[in-house]
Amino acid sequence: MRKWIYKIWTTLLWVASSVLSLTALFFVAAFILSSIPVNSSLAQSTEEDAIEIFVTSNGVHTDIVVPVVTPYLDWRSKLPLHHFEHVDSSYSYISFGWGDRRFYMQTPEWSDLTPEVAITAALWPTPTAMHVAYIRSGLAPTKRQQPVKITPDQYIELIKYIDSSFQKQNGSYLHIAGTGYTSNDTFYEAHGKFHLLKNCNNWVNSGLKAMGMEAALWAPLPFAVMRYLR
User: Fold this and answer.
1) What is the spatial distance between Cα 176 and Cα 178, in angstroms, rounded to a whole number?
2) What is the pTM of this model?
3) Distance between CA atoms of 157 and 136, rounded to whole angstroms?
4) Is residue 228 within 8 Å of residue 216, measured between CB atoms?
């Protein structure tokens, strides 16, 4: 009996030690690789026709916010207002986030998060969704709402990047009907698998890199994304 108890105890210690070691390795790698910039020679645009976008953070998750209408695209043509419960033509900005589909659907508030959902999202490649929210007016620059001025060419590259993240059917984004946290947001099916090494913050960071903006080599945490925008 004691032998079995000893085996169980040593197994639990090994599991706990492994989890702690992997967690420590993750944070060390995040710190080191996020300190290595790419496109470091390219600053924000100062041209008169620059387009102002925002990158936002809630401390865990980051999003990209862009104008609804520009000469290059009216997002309402791809994300029709009738997909949203209470959005009209007065809304001037739109927010995009990419992430674990189940996590998005089952965690409207952090208090709703369960260990099983969190562990599955972190350790196993899972289906993804695009979270889209219309915003009535522009955002005020804050520590967690960083404005970024980009050129028209950079914005076109960002449009291509965001568009490629959506699953499509007959050219239309695949809407997940009946979803959303509020009356001005909803979800769409997305491309790619979510896991610890490729998460929502990496998606935003990759969008910045796609435009040629200065960004981190790898950015799994919000600070790694936001540090290059301040």
Assistant:
1) 7
2) 0.86
3) 24
4) yes
Q: What is the pLDDT of residues 92-133, one digit of tens each?
A: 999 999 999 988 887 665 555 566 655 665 667 899 999 999
Domain boundaries, the chain: 1-34, 38-226
User: For the chain, what is the radius of gyration of the CA atoms?
Assistant: 20
217 residue type, one letter: L
Contact 229, 149 (CB under 8 A): no
Contact 37, 229 (CB under 8 A): no
Q: Do the Cβ atoms of 205 and 211 come closer than 8 Å?
A: no
Spatial separation of the C-alpha atoms in residues 53 and 72, rounded to whole Å: 14
Sheet holding 62-67, edge to edge: 145-150, 51-57, 62-67, 93-100, 128-135, 185-189, 175-176
Query: What values do phi and psi take at 66, rounded to 5?
Result: -135, 160
